[in-house]
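Need the bound structure for zinc ion, inputs here:
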Amino acid sequence: MAQLFIHPMKLSEFRKDECGLPDSRALDIYEALKAQGVDVDPTLNPGDHKIPPADSTDLTVYGILLQSSQLLEEGYRLGFTDIDRPTLWEFEGGMTPLCWRCDEFRQVSEIDFVLSLLSKGANLFQSLSQMGTKPQSKTTAVHLLNARLAELLSQDDDYHYKELSQFIEDNQSRFWQFLGNHLFSLSHRDSCSCACSAGGCTPLSVSIRLRMDWWDPDEQFFHLSCKMKHFLEFLIDWNQSRPQVSREIIRSLTFDGLGLRHSCCTEIKGGEPFWCTRDESELHDIMDEQKGLIEQLDQLVSEFEAQFDALQLPLMEFLRDIWYHGMMKFHSECDAFDEEHHIEAGRLGISLEVDDGPIPLIVQLLGPGLQELDTTDEEEEEEE
Ligand SMILES: [Zn+2]
Ligand SMILES: [Zn+2]
Ligand SMILES: [Zn+2]
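Answer from helper R.:
Posting the output first, comments after.
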């Protein structure tokens, strides 16, 4: 529209200051068009939207289109196409709009806009390094979204689960066409090499990892335990109890149950913004330090998998009746000759003392006898 109505000289003057994005001088262009009496759709008026930065001359048409589904639709009607261009806004650090939306995701209703972006062809699997945002990062929008959703679901007992299922019910076909299969699933693996998920992080493994990051220290043990079990039940139902998913859940839980430290997608951390990346040398140190324990992890996981396949129990029962005891046995046996992983577990800062050493919290939470366990643990909590 600007090319049609504004003199080329004047337009190139506007464009001179553009910082890589077309139409970063959108307000000037809009006003020039209005001054010529051109009937511009008012939804394209950059000055009309109260969005940061406050100085609306810095706004881009691009930025404005990304404020709502309606504006995006309107932009597409007018010929906009470039959905995956990393933004230049300093705060979002050059992520694609989809990735930024996924990182900033805080409410179930925001899935609606994610679906709009996806329906326009935004790439859910582009990594931050491909965007040029973070050279080392394997994190993708799909991982960020799963991480944030897991955080959201961990914040209360039921409300967000209900909200999510209501949203899906109301948006069935869009949801499953563009996104559903990439939530809490094994649909996509990145190139991380962390033993919590063999072959790379999946939406499922990222969601479990972030769920584990999210403990409210003031919450009672009994309540924490219920919520963790609720989350796992949700993951199992979501994946229709598929055995492969169950095996991957067992691996993730065992990894955390040994108190191991992750080297995967470290820029996604519970409650923290994405740019808290650990550096590569620290990641190598983590992997080096844990070599012995990773062998034990693989050994344990293959034993659990064999038992799981043989017993054919529902996963929650398996975790309570088999996995929990296996983990407790491992910890009590290894205490005799190997204190190292206990120190490692202690470093995580998420373990409670039980008997003669810290057992990672996740193991305790999935134990069988809340009635047997919760009294002792609540006493311990009170003592602290
Ligand atoms: Zn990991
Ligand atoms: Zn990863
Ligand atoms: Zn131990």
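Comments: Residues 17-21, 49-58, 349-356, 371-384 have pLDDT under 50 and may be disordered. The longest strand covers residues 351-354.
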